[in-house]
UniProtKB/TrEMBL annotation:
Residues 24-96 form the HD domain. It holds the Pfam family HD. PANTHER family: METAL DEPENDENT PHOSPHOHYDROLASE, METAL-DEPENDENT PHOSPHOHYDROLASE. This is HD domain-containing protein. SUPFAM superfamilies: HD-domain/PDEase-like.
Length: 188
């Protein structure tokens, strides 16, 4: 149970983040994580924590990239939001943090792939409306496309969640579609 409100979280994110692209990424991962609470968590009772983990996972990256995610993790821990803090501290496997809960695994599985699905939408005239998992999987094989997306992290995330890649991609597409206009995923 989280006591942090979305408004408080958003206010912090906005004060620490100047990059509109990073703000959009944070909102995109929030949207997907709210849906993930129903699919991978225990449902409605997890929605706020999952959503806030998605919203805040990169909150300190814009201002303090060399310290990421230590600042946001410390901020959350100071407020007693240990579950969200731990999930954020674990959203990159190379940090060596344990994956103890479904929220930890879901954030790992949703972060990079949500950004990648967004990148796929940007190169399609019809955006997300006709995007299919097979197209995303094909782009994942092209190392030069969205080169900043760590394919190993994508693979580790779906493996830890115990889901098939195509199924998880479809889940992310379905979660993002209702928010396509807000997130700039509607195409040209």
């Amino acid at each position: 149970m989280t006591t942090l409100t979305r408004d408080e979280a958003y206010e912090l994110l906005r004060s620490w983040t100047d990059s509109e692209a990073l703000m959009t990424h944070a909102r995109s991962v929030e949207v997907v994580m709210r849906a993930a609470a129903h699919r991978y968590g225990s449902g409605e009772g997890d929605v706020e924590a999952y959503g806030l983990a998605g919203l805040l996972h990169d909150a300190d990256y814009d201002r303090w990239p060399e310290e990421h995610p230590a600042r946001i993790v410390a901020w959350l821990n100071e407020r007693g939001e240990t579950t969200i803090a731990h999930a954020i501290s674990a959203h990159y496997t190379k940090w060596g943090v344990s994956y103890d809960t479904q929220i930890d695994r879901a954030l790992l599985a949703c972060d990079e792939l949500t950004g990648f699905v967004g990148a796929c939408c940007f190169v399609r005239p019809e955006g997300i409306s006709t995007l299919e998992p097979k197209s995303v999987k094909k782009k994942l094989k092209q190392k030069s496309f969205a080169a900043g997306v760590d394919r190993d992290e994508v693979a580790a995330g779906v493996e830890m969640l115990g889901v098939e890649l195509g199924e998880h991609i479809q889940f992310i597409i379905d979660a993002l579609k209702p928010h396509a206009e807000e997130l700039g995923l509607s195409g040209t």
